[in-house]
Amino acid sequence: MINKFFFLVIPILLIVSCNTNPPTSPDVTPTGNVVLTLKVDNTAFVSAASKVVILEDFANVSCNPCVTSNKIIENLTNVTYGRSKLVAVKFPTNFPTPNDLFYLAAEEICDARISYYNVFFAPTTVIDGILKPISTDSNSVKAAVDSRLSITPRFNLNVEANLDGDYSVTVDIKFLDTTSINLSDLVIHTVLTETDIEFEQAPGSNGETKFYDVTRLMLPSKDGTPVRQLIDQGELIFTFEDALLSSWNLEKLNFVVYIQNKTTKEIYQTGSTFD
Q1: How far apart are CA 247 and CA 20, in angstroms?
Q2: What is the C-alpha end-to-end distance of the chain, expressed in Å?
Q3: N or C end of the chain: smaller count of CB under 10 Å?
Q4: Most distant pair of Cα atoms in the chain: their distance
Q5: How do residues 89-129 score in pLDDT, each as one tens digit?
Q6: d(CA 92, CA 200)
Q7: Are residues 200 and 21 in contact, defined by beta-carbon separation less than 8 angstroms?
């Protein structure tokens, strides 16, 4: 695995891209392609894997309670648990104000996840797709994470990335226990996040200048990839032309991958390039 990545973006983001990292007028010149490879082996069962929990957070740069929830999440992911146990993905909202620049840069993705979880206010925190603790209560969030860490994982995910001309990301999926799971209900989501963004001046009204784990892109789309399709083919390769941008901080990007039941919304396992 590597810790240096190039930011990936679909063409629409070239139009609505917002200024986040210094310099304040970033260059968005395409510099190369992205190749995402998903692989599954449902015959080579592995004996064990470490459970990784995902925290999906819905926040806004003008949401005052989000200041507290953001601090809680940053501390839990980087200090209390570490990213090998807890991975955060933030989907910005268009409320309480519609001009959140992170939301505008990934509007279609954010709208899809907001609708999927029926999110009506910010902050809202969702743990492994099924638990919604009180976002501003660290004990509530921690209890939800602990309860999911105690669950035996059903899958093993390995995420690797390298830059050699094209930017290549490979996700290997192995099964541990699929008892009582309808594989046709499962999708695999692949999300690119920017883990650390800082402004000289707050972009919203809540005064925050530092932001963590903000969603930038979902590959190959907001709908994810059906696991059944992946099983049938064994390997799927998606290529995104001119998706690499020269403007983003190479050391602050993370690929997050998770397997979710689209019916129950439960997320069985998560992996990332920071594992």
Answers
A1: 10
A2: 8
A3: N
A4: 53
A5: 999 999 999 999 999 989 999 999 999 999 999 999 999 99
A6: 20
A7: no
